[in-house]
Amino acid sequence: MKVTILAENNAVSPFEAEHGLSLLLEHGNLQLLFDTGAGTVLAGNSELMKKDLSSLDGIILSHGHSDHTGGLYLLDPTTVWHTPGITQPHYSRHPGKPVRTLTMPGCCVEHLKQCQSKIVDTFTEILPDIFLTGAIPRLSGEDCGGPFFSDADGNIRDEISDEQALLTKDGILIQGCCHAGIINTLEYCKQNAPDIKIHTVIGGLHLLLAPEERLRKTAEYLKKSGIKKLYLLHCTGENAIIYLRKALPEIEIFTPGVDGKTILL
Predict the structure, then answer these.
(1) Which residues are within 8 A (CB) of 174 and not within 5 positions of it... i.e. 6 or more apart?
(2) pLDDT of 53-105, one tens digit each?
(3) Residue from 136, 134, 162, 133 nearest 66 by CA
(4) Distance, CA of 88 to CA of 82 (rounded, Å)
(5) Tens of pLDDT, residues 142-198
(6) Three-state SS at 253
(7) DSSP letter at 53?
């Protein structure tokens, strides 16, 4: 598989950065877009990379946050795989900061209606050798990674239950933000696809605000998981990357999060 980073938090000129994530996946004859970023850099970076997004075989949305869905309206209508709650309200309320809406933008909600929605509500093989998890059960005690709410007043906690991950038959796991927690995600994949030995994880792990105890449990699990490579992007957090590098010398940890980079797997 070839993974090209089209939108990410970091970039080197002439590419542009944004707080968001979009990955172009080229797998055999398939060309899939995993998330669309926030929508401010997708078109320009794709053009610089000479990547034609008009002929996609489909789009996978990991969850409904606007930094992963905001570029949807820029793309030609196509098949879009997503979970049932992709358009539900999402907010973030950090102490001392204004309420921020993370809901899929209205223009993207309208554009989604023009696409062929394929709702993923359970672990599913969507294309040959490509699986989506659907919603991931929260069993490990990992939280969703931040002060997220389903209402602007901050009364209803949001576990971001609309999130899903992508798994290939040859053992590559691709994340948007991993709000479900990497332990829950890997365990759910193991339960549903026990013959697939996951060796590589790509994407955000949303450990920006994780206390040391959370990082310790994550590292202990990964140490025993059989993972060989981590490509940590977007929302993983520099503190978490430093911690995991020190705790997991046996795992190759990359931070290729620069728009325009291509990862060959």
Answers:
(1) 3, 23, 25, 34, 165, 166, 167, 201, 202, 203
(2) 999 999 999 999 999 999 999 999 999 999 999 999 999 999 889 999 999 99
(3) 162
(4) 12
(5) 999 999 999 999 999 999 999 999 999 999 999 999 999 999 999 999 999 999 999
(6) strand
(7) G
